[in-house]
Description:
alpha+beta, 3 domains, four-stranded mixed beta sheet, High-affinity iron transporter, Cupredoxin, five-stranded mixed beta sheet, 9 strands
Amino acid sequence: MLVPFLIMLREGIEAALIVGIIASFLRHTDRAALMPAVWAGVFFALGLSLFAGAGLQWMAAEFPQKQQELFEAVVGFIAVGMLTGMVFWMRKAARSIKSELQASVDKALSTSGSASWALIGMVFLAVAREGLESVFFLLAIFQQSTGWGAAVGALAGIALSILLGVGLYKGGVRINMRQFFRYTGVFILLVAAGLLAGAVRRLHEAGVWNHLQQVVFDSSAVLPEDSALGVVLGGLLGYMHAPVQGEVLAWAAYLVVTLAMFFWPAQAVPAVKPSVPAADLATQSTPHASATQPASLGGVVLGSVLVLVLGAAAFWQAAVSSQSAAKPGGDGSPAAAAAADVPQVTIEISQGRCTPNAVSVPAGKVQFRIVNKGERALEWEILDGVMVLEERENILPGLSQTLTARLAPGQYQMTCGLLNAPRGTLTVTPSDAFKAEAAKPPVTAFIGALAEYQVYLLTEVASLQDMLQALPQRLQPAGDAAQQAPADGYPADALQLVALARGQYQKLVPLAAQFGDLNARIDARAADFALRDKDPAFVGLHRIAVGLKAAEGAEQLLPLITSLQQDVEQLAQRLGDATLQPQNLATNSAKALERASTLIPGEATTPEEGRWALQFVRGSLAAADKTQQLLAPVLANANPALLQQLQASLEKVRQLLADQGVSADEAQAATTPGVLLNPVQCQNLAQALYQASQSMGKINMALGLQP
């Protein structure tokens, strides 16, 4: 109970004292009407901190330590700037202690709104800086402890820090104003120096600043940070028992500059006679403030109270749920929380040793369970030289915390309790899972490929529309009756154009097949219907080819062509509106190739059917080739062997087509001959398409993309 009490006292004392000084300052300058802004800043900071802790507990998430440290560093730097500005404004205002002071304060803290929001922001930063870290520490207490002793101790520490702030406010109003400005100004500068040194440390722990990390002195044996006096000094002045060079230099440089400026003799300013008596000035300005401020901030304060109440309720619910999970039989144990494929390592730490002291884990994700076997709150870090990779702070005696880290192969060190204690060793060995994860390209690597594929689809569907627009003119020679078939059948180029259109549609199939209604109308086969080619629902490219071969009248074929044109027009619109995903490129192409491999055998029993089949294979190859070209840049880095295998399998299909007289030149696609393909030739084409589909189907796994 004592350890969490001291930790929370340390977390809260800085914020409480800064808020107390601001409140006392407002009281001194007769600006008590601005106190709602102070309370609004406090309530907003507490409420949002509680919401953040509850949200992560409900999501069963670990707050990333680096992001937490970086957040605290940024807030610390902002707070230092605002506090420094406040001190020097106070110094300037202190030059006039009598009637001019009220006028100066009225001008600087006008109730137009800017000063109110500035106060809210200053107080918010002072409280939020410690609030977020505090709520995560409280959640850790609930998760680690099955009793309420540690939680009560932590809440008692917060309560005492609040009382110190209230005491400063109550006592400060009795201090002489000149002394108040001087002493509190120096005190705030000392606090700000500690904040600055702490922000530098946070930058180091976030991995941003890793210079000047040699320890200047180590007083942990005499005055540790977690002792009662160390906690008070840490809260007041940012005391650290083992500061490094960068922190000491930042602390000292800040104080040298700011204290020199603060105590530098102020240039005398000629007294300005007030335009109205001092008594009248006070009576004129003060009512204005009190009259306007509550109305302008009433809604803000009410909103901040609502945020605090809701945040407290959410945090309480999250804390109770974590307390239940921590009980025997609950599901909150680290073993239950760890994913089945994530290795788990338990490390016990004391003030000066890790057990085991040498740990070896595979590269990738690893979950560490850190158990404190010492008698004081300790921390555990993974270090790469001086850089902090991961850490857990404020692990209470007898309790544990978990940390999930993603580690690259290499040799690292572990801090074991105290920072000056001998360090343990952490060896991370190479693993196949880590190599696959490291090879996974970022999503941004696919932006260009997806955009190009979208353009490709729209270009090819436009070509298909052009072919279908030209088809009615191919149905009959000039001069024949419009509603009759030519006596000797339709011109050969009509069937050739339909075959070409079928091959053109195959270029779209990887995505078009997802639109089942249109795909069934455009590319369905007679065998897909109960009445085969006599079924009224049988329409599309195959139906038109059947009609051409049977020399059906134009009155039957033209409506089919018009319907097909409408379906393709709708397809073009859907392709333009489609949202493409990286994982779908390879998956859809693999499915299209596999389907093509099943349709080829038995399709070429006549020369015209041979042309039909070859155009079908040519279109399937073109679609697969485009996918391969788009994914090749990222696949070459992730799995060059698979890329070579895919290219070889597609080249096999291309060679088989060339053997049948199919030109590799897209512009010569219409010249594909009509040939009779024997069963062996069809089987060879089918087998080559299937092998290409298998290679294409491995791409997502190689790139770490989920299907």
